[in-house]
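Dock flavin mononucleotide; give full complex structure.
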Amino acid sequence: MTRLAARLGLELPLLQAGMGAVAGTALCAEVSQAGAGGTLALYKERPARAARLVRAVATATARPFGVNVVPEVTGPAACLEQLRAVLPELPPGGFVTSFGLPDAEAVRAVATAGHPLVVQVGTLADADTALGLGAAVLVLQGIEAGGHLLGRLPVNRLLAAVRARHPHAVLAVAGGIATGRDLAGAVARGADGAMAGTLFVPAAESTAHPEFKRRVVQAVADDTLITSLFDIGWPHRPHRVLRNPLTITAERAPATFIATTRVDGRDHPVPRYSAAAPGDTTTGRIEEMAMYCGRSCTRVTARHPAAVTVARVRRQYESARRTGEGSPDTPGATRTNRTEEPHRIQER
Ligand SMILES: Cc1cc2nc3c(=O)[nH]c(=O)nc-3n(C[C@H](O)[C@H](O)[C@H](O)COP(=O)(O)O)c2cc1C
């Protein structure tokens, strides 16, 4: 058992990323039941609805699960309101994951409620700060990752730098993980586990739009790119998405409404270049929306129930750990961890 699994009470040292429009109650509960770290995305959820969602997961799984906040999107005050609403509903053993650094008040709220805090960072400096704030687990995100990017380093370089400075910290990596062999490779390089997002986008229980699921299954790594295009609602943060008609056009089109997403019986218009991903209640020009996707998509080839995916990753992981496959010294290890590509941020 790795330190990540022990610290969060998991059978497999794998966290499912909290993903706005994708990781709802069903995905979170299924991943948790299967023995990995199911996580509910709170993203822009209002506090009362967020509390309801956490209660729903708690009734659907007896195993640990997490809730995910994105303070840089909500702002610190709204993030604290979300936390104050959900923490009383989170069963003992549950955890909180934060995309980027939370402020001291949010950290205190989580600590007072007695839950471990998992902070995702993309730089060595932010890793130092998160540990200083009292994070129990760090998720080190590399530029291979799908979604918004917290740094500019390939994941293995970030892991090596943080591990060298913090030999005893509990570290998971994010970016490039889609198989048990990828996970074993990360552990062999000094991680205590990993977080995967793209792997779970096409899951049966994911609330991603069917077209988004289809494209992730079909895509290979080079169908993704880093851009700053989808900045409405989440500015100043480059993100890795699937190429689409907007990412290949030189001129920025008007930010008129191109789609609608229904939440709790109410329609929310989606402007072109919105940061919102298409969910299963979105209608409109889905192909123009931000479909966040990591380079690991090459190895995401089917839509399965999440339990099947977790069981397969577990089998592959245990076999790779037994045979030493996936360790940095075995042939093929670099082939399954494609971090070498020199990435350029497409600034448009
Ligand atoms: C569709 C999608 C949505 C995401 N939304 C969030 C989010 O709401 N909160 C968050 O902490 N991270 C989010 N992420 C980023 C993940 O936390 C993580 O860094 C990433 O999924 C790891 O790379 P991978 O997708 O290649 O596994 C998202 C990623 C994807 C693919």
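Observed: The chain has a mean pLDDT of 94.
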